[in-house]
Amino acid sequence: MKLYGEAMPAPNPRRVRIFLAEKGLEVPEIPIGLRQGGHRSPEHLARNSLGQVPVLELDDGTTISETVAICRYFEALHPDPPLFGVSALEQAQVEMWTRRIEFRVMVPVGMYWRHAHPLTARLLKQNVEFGESNREVVDKAQAWLDRELSDGRPYLTGETYTIADIVAQTTLDFADFVGLATPAEARNVLAWRERMAARPSAGA
Fold first, then answer.
1. For residues 134 and 180, what is the distance between their CA atoms, to the nearest angstrom?
2. Distance, CA of 68 to chain centre
């Protein structure tokens, strides 16, 4: 078993690394070399026709793409500690928060990265005006998240750390990298981020 990924600040491979660290698992990771175009090589496209990372390759050659799918695979094999919830309600809340973060926060961060950041200018045709418009979208999303966390709960779904926290942590850390830092007035988000950064898995 091996994991094809990329080093920080790439957020998606980091999600899997944090998840594995929380599970106490070790899987060899092979950096694909995104900036060098490794994701477009015939070898990698054979693993994932979308040319994305991470990709988990099993011992029999079967491949699994998409971060949450990879994490669900490991969750089924190694259910403790549970990171997708246990009860039906917990699982639904984890799914709800994971999708909220992906759609409400990660999508506009990704659109800014693709269309307004200088590092991606040579990789695709940018619509800079559209890219810049996502700054406001990300700010509003973080203000919404701050209100959600105002009840003082330690994690997104309540009292238990889950994949939803991993998705949010890697998203906001990547937002920092691209220049979309959490506003100082979003104190609840900043406090939550400090808690996530203090976990040993944060360095994965």
1. 10
2. 9
With residue 56 as reference, give the H or E element that holds it.
strand 55-57
For residue 78, the model assigns a pLDDT of 98
- pLDDT at residue 95, as a whole number: 98
- The two tokens of residue 13 are 């491979």
Contact call for residues 145 and 165 (beta carbons, < 8 A): no
What pLDDT sits at residue 110? 94
Residues ≥6 apart with Cβ < 8 Å to 170: 11, 12, 14, 15, 18
- Residue 31: which of 3, 9, 57 has the closest Cα? 3
Please give the model's pTM, rounded to 2 decimal places.
0.94
108 Cβ neighbours under 8 A, 6+ residues apart: 134, 137, 138, 141
> Which among 14, 70, 7 is positioned nearest to 38, based on CA atoms?
7
Listed as own residue / partner, the contacts of 32-41 with beta carbons closer than 8 Å and 24 or more positions apart are: 32/4, 32/5, 32/6, 33/6, 34/6, 34/10
- CA distance readout (Å), 46 to 18, 23, 76, 82: 26, 29, 26, 32
In the DSSP assignment, the letter for residue 119 is G
CA 125 to chain centre: 24
**Block mean pLDDT (10 aa), the chain, length 204:** 93 97 97 86 94 96 97 98 98 98 97 88 84 96 98 97 98 96 97 98 92
What is the helix (H) or strand (E) element at residue 30, kind and residue range?
strand 29-31
